[in-house]
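User: hey, got a sec? need Tautomerase folded
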Amino acid sequence: MPIVTIQVTREGTKPGADSVTANEKAQLIEGVSQLLLDVLNKPLEATFVVIEEVEKENWGWGGLPVDEYRKQRGLK
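Assistant: Yep! Here you go:
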């Protein structure tokens, strides 16, 4: 019984969105579950996927808050 946790920053992937959409989450769940089936032969009904959205101010990268790191690196 695999349990997969996906952590992402809470922000939109498209203009006007402020979080990952329900459709994007469904695609992540389907894709990860299928990968475990294909690689490890784990049945879809035995795979659990948890998606955690973390506020950007609670996410650090390279010793900096994520927004500052991105600014310095020229990333979104």
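Quick note: The mean pLDDT is 93. Let me know if you need anything else on Tautomerase.
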